[in-house]
Amino acid sequence: MKETLSMKNKIALLICFFCFFSEREIQAELPQKTTDLLIVGGTESGWAAAIQAARLGVKSVTLVLDGTWLGGQYTEQALACVDENKGPGKVGWGVDWHPMKRSFHRSGLFKELMDRIEAFNTEKYGSPMPGRPFHGPSTFRPAEAEAIFREMLQPYIESGQVRLITGHYPVKADLKQNESRQQLTGLWFAPVGSETPDLHITARLTIDASDWGDVIQVSGADFEVGADPRSRYNEPSAPVNTDDYPANEMNPITWAMIVEEADKDTPIPKPERYDDRNFVRTSKLSLAEMKHLKWDRPARLGSILHWPDAGKASPRQLSIFTVRRIVDGYTSQDHKTSILLNYMLGQDYPLERLPKHVVDALEATEPGASTKNIVRMNRRQRQIIFDDAKRHSLCLFYHLQNFVHEHAPDKTNSFRHFQLSKEFGTADQLPPKPYIRESLRLKAMYMMREQDGRNMDGPTKKFARERFARVMYPDGLFAWQFHYDFHRTGRAYLKSEGNSGPWIDFEKPGRNTKLVSDRSVFPLRSLVPVDMDGLLGAQKNVGYSSIVSAAIRLHDQCVTLGQAAGATAAVSLQQNIAPRDIPYNRERLEQVRHALCGAADEGVAVLIWPYRDLAPSHPAFVAINRLAARGIIPMDIRKIDFQPDAPATTEWRHKTRQLAYQTVQVANLPIFPEEGLSRGEYCQRLWDSLKALPIRPYSRVNREDADGDGIPDIDDPSLFTPGEPIQWKKKIASKDQDGLLDKATSKKARRINFAGKKTAPLTDFEADHGHVYDAKRGYGWRRDLSQNHRQRNKVPETYRDTFVFTRDHDTWECEVPNGTWLVTVCVGDSGHEQIGQWVTVEGKQIVKDAATIDGFFLEQSANVTVTDQRLTIEIGKPDSGTNTCLNWVTFEPAPQKK
C-alpha cells in the first residue's frame, strides 16, 4: 500500500513539475506586454474608461476587446435608438410628460459623443434625429456611430498612450496574495475561436468592461447572477421565494436587426423551426383561436396587435414602423427608411426554460449546461443560445414579411419591402452580438439596493418621483434615474406540446414592477470588488442587486459608468492608493470628482448631483455639483431644481456657509461680497474660496464599521451617518400645507367637502359626492365622479382625509350670484404622494403641476369674478397620467377694497 501511494505521489509530483515548467515555457514564449491600466471590453464603458484615463494622464492604457467594433450596445449590439436624458421638456425618454422621466441634461463623455453623432446626422441627413421615431430618442446607423467612437479614441492611440488589441478574450489570471485578499496583476488572452493564450499582459490595475464579466470570472472575484431572494438585500420588490426563478432566469437578450427599405420586395427564406404561433401578438390567428391556445404558464398576451379582417390598421398596430425608426425616408439622401427591430412583438429571448433543441445541444457539451446561467457558460455554450436567438429574430422578420403583410389592410406599410442591413459585414447580415441587458453582478464593497433609490413612504406606482433618493451615497460619482425595467423574463410553452413546440415570453411576478427610482447617485464603492485588489467593474459588471441592475443599463449610464471607473483608476494609479481606500479618504474622493467634474482641460463635466435644471454650459455647473456632492448646499428632498439664476437670499447664504465650515479645516472662510449675487454666482465664489483649502478628513471609528453604528460597511449605504441611512428630515407642514381650515375663515363662507356617500356628514361643510350638476342642489360635476372618492383614515379631520380625484380633466360648478369671490381650494392626499396636480378657478390657474407628499396638502386662494351665475372650478388636465385630488373648497364674496 505504501508503495502504491508513493508511486501516486511521484506521478503527481511529475505532473506538477511538468505543468509548472510547461506554463513557464508557454509564458516565456507569449508576447509580453506591461501596462498601467488594462481595460477589457470594447463596450461603451470600456471606451469611455480608456478616454477618461488617458485624459487624466495615465501613461499606458491597453484596451482589449473580443470583437472589432467599439461602442457596445450602440454599435455591435445595434441598439441604435438611445435611451437617455435630454433635459427638462426635451424630446426623448427625458420628456416631462413621460412616466419614466429622467430629466437630466446631457453631460460628460456621453454629451460629447451624442453631440458628434448628431452633428454627423445633421450633415448627412439634414437632422440630428433622422429617424423621427415615436418616442423621440436620438438615432443613428450603428456603423456610422462606431466610426465616431473610433474617431474620438484615435488621438490617444496615435500618441501611443492607448494601445488597442482586438479579437482577444481573457482565459487566465495572474494573482498574488496580499495581507488579507488577492490582487489581480495580469491576464492571459486567447484569440477568439481558440482557448490557447497567445498574449500575456501585466497591469497595475484592470477594469472589466466586458459583456459577461470575463475578467471577474477568470480572476475568481466573487459575483452574483439570477434573481435575488428578498432575504439577501431586504428589497421590497424581491421575491420571497425564488423557487420559480431558476438560476438561468434574468433579463432577456435580444438579437436586434437593422432593416432598410429596398427597391423591391425582398423576402427572406423561411427560417428553421418557424412557427407562426410564436408571434400570437401579431398572428393571422383569430382572437378566438388565440384564446384557445393553452400555455403552461400564466402568460397574459397583453396588447394583441391582431389585424382585423376589415377596417384600417390602428396606429398601435403600425407602431413597429415608427417606434424604432433610425433613418426616415423623407430625410435620407436615398429616400430609404431604416428601422431597428429590437424587442417588440415577442422578439426578446428569455434565458430560462430553453427550447428542447437548445437544451439537447447544450447538454451534449456538458451535463447540466442547459440549467446554467448564461454568464457561467463558456463561449461555445453561449454560442448555442446566440444561434437560437438569431433564428428567433429572423423568424419574427419572416413573420412580419409574410403573415403580417398578408393581413395588413395597407400594403404600403409592409416589411416585405425591407431587407437586412449590410453595414455589419457579417455573413448573416445581423449585428455581431445580441443586446445584453444583464450580466453578472460584481460582489462589491457596497451592493446598491432598491430601497436606497426609493423613498418608501409613497404608494407602489410607476410614475417618476420628482425628489431625491432615500440615500444619496456619500461617495456618489454621477447622477442616474430610471425604472426597474425587466423585460419578460419567463417563457411559456403550449401545454399540449411542451418545450418542443412554440413559446411566448411573459412577465414573471415581481420582475417588472414598473417602479421608478428617485433621483439618485452612483457610489464609487459599487465599482470595487469586496474581495480582490487590482480590479474595478464597469459596464454591467458592477455592485448592485438584480432589481437595480434593471435600472442602470442604458446608453448614457454605461458611458458614465466607464468614465467613473476610468477616473477612479487614474487617481488610484497616480496617488498610489487602492481604489477601496478612496471612499474613506475624502481628499482622494474629491480628486475623483474633480476628474469627472472640474478638470476643464478636456471634455464636458459630468453631472454628479441629480439636479434637473443644471446644464454643463452654465458657468456655475462645476461649483454647484461639487458643493452639493460635499454636502455644502442646503437640501430639500423635493427641490430638484437648483435655480442657479435666482437671487441668493441671506438665509440661504448663511446655511450654505455654515455647511461649508463642516468640510474644511480652517477657522474662517475667505470673505467675498455677497449682496446682489444669484445662487449660481454665490456658489462660484464660495467654491473658488474653499476648493484649495485643506479638507476635513472622515473620522473612521473602526475598519469594518466606519461610523460605529453597528451596521457593517458592506451593508451601510451611508458610511459616515450613524443609524438609519435616511438623510431627509421629516418636513413640518406650513400653514398652507397642513390642509386645515384657517380659523380666520369667515362663518359666512360656503364650505364644500368632497367625499364619498359613506362618509359621515360634517356640521360645517356641505358634502359633494361627485354627482352630476343638479339645479335643485345648486352644484355638481359635468360628468359623474361618484366613484372617484377616497378616504385614507390617516388624519383625524375628515374634510382633509377625503377627496375626489381625476386623472383627466373635470369641471365642478356651483350656482352663485355674479360678482367677485374669494375662493380657497385644497388639494393633496393624506396617505399617498401625488404629482402633477392642476386647478383653475374661473379660468385663473391657481394650482399648476403641483406635487404633494403623503399627509401634506396645498391650499391656494384667489379672487375671481363670476359673470354667468356659476362658480366654475376645473381640476386636472387631459391625458396628464397623474391624479389631481381635491379635498375641499371654500368661497365667499370678496372683501370690498377701501
UniProtKB/TrEMBL annotation:
<dbReference type="InterPro" id="IPR036188">
    <property type="entry name" value="FAD/NAD-bd_sf"/>
</dbReference>
<keyword id="KW-0479">Metal-binding</keyword>
<keyword id="KW-0004">4Fe-4S</keyword>
<feature type="region of interest" description="Disordered">
    <location>
        <begin position="227"/>
        <end position="246"/>
    </location>
</feature>
<dbReference type="GO" id="GO:0046872">
    <property type="term" value="F:metal ion binding"/>
</dbReference>
<dbReference type="GO" id="GO:0051539">
    <property type="term" value="F:4 iron, 4 sulfur cluster binding"/>
</dbReference>
<keyword id="KW-0408">Iron</keyword>
<dbReference type="InterPro" id="IPR008979">
    <property type="entry name" value="Galactose-bd-like_sf"/>
</dbReference>
<keyword id="KW-0411">Iron-sulfur</keyword>
<dbReference type="InterPro" id="IPR039650">
    <property type="entry name" value="HdrA-like"/>
</dbReference>
<keyword id="KW-0560">Oxidoreductase</keyword>
<dbReference type="Pfam" id="PF12831">
    <property type="entry name" value="FAD_oxidored"/>
</dbReference>
<protein>
    <submittedName>
        <fullName>FAD dependent oxidoreductase</fullName>
    </submittedName>
</protein>
<dbReference type="GO" id="GO:0016491">
    <property type="term" value="F:oxidoreductase activity"/>
</dbReference>
